[in-house]
């Protein structure tokens, strides 16, 4: 008569090792599919998108809005050209966008999309005009720059085409990029600017002198949705003290507009 309570045969070390490896491989495959297909995290390394995004913010960008390109995949393999399978409206004026820097695709940038293909963009006295129409901005008071104590900047509230407001920083109307020529955005390209208008190297700056220039559609990675977590000024991977000391709970799950 068989004992129903008998313990199952003990797995060998080899069997347990194989199952562990399978579990790890499956987990990595799921993470890879999610990262390539749906979401991707990024860390904000600079102050160019203040005050909406701060240095040390850990953001999440969604990919289905713009479709996928070779830059949606780690290491940017040249498997195909252009974009495929777009499920959203596509890039819209006012979107905060993650993209590969055209002059150096190993670098990832985050800026606000200001001009679509065919648009005429110009900055006059710090005010942005798109197709000769001013992006209306409303003064929102002065504040201290989060990364430069003692530096007072003016805040202005602007509004995207979908009605969502965002805030920009301005150090004054006579900055190097506050008065520009007219930029005519070529077909298949986009014009990007940082919200920290006087502290952003963006499409206003020629790539030959370290700027961004026009951004090809293929270089877009995704639309920034939220700040997942944040560390003030960033945290050092090799210094656990900064993980706690600089952690900023006020920015957890903060929507990005």
List segments where confidence is low: pLDDT < 50 over at least 5 consecutive residues: none
How big a fraction of the residues is strand?
Answer: 25-35%
The total count of helices amounts to: 2
Domains, number: 1
Indicate the percent of residues in helices: 10-25%
CATH class: Mainly Beta
CATH architecture, by name, is Ribbon
Strand count, sense and barrel status of the largest sheet are:
8 strands, antiparallel
Which structural category do the helix and sheet elements fall into? mainly beta
For this structure, the CATH topology is Umud Fragment, subunit A
Using brief descriptors, characterize the structure shown.
eight-stranded antiparallel β-sheet; 15 strands; mainly beta; globular; 31% strand; single chain
Model description:
By secondary structure, the chain is mainly beta. The protein has a single domain, classed as Umud Fragment, subunit A. It is built from 2 helices and 15 strands. Strands 1, 2, 3, 4, 12, 13, 14 and 15 form an 8-stranded antiparallel beta sheet that branches. The protein has a 4-stranded antiparallel beta sheet with strand order 7-6-5-11, with no helix packed on it. The longest helix is centred in the first third of the chain and has 25 residues, at 13-37. The protein is globular and about 80 Å long. The protein starts with 12 loop residues before the first helix and ends with a strand.
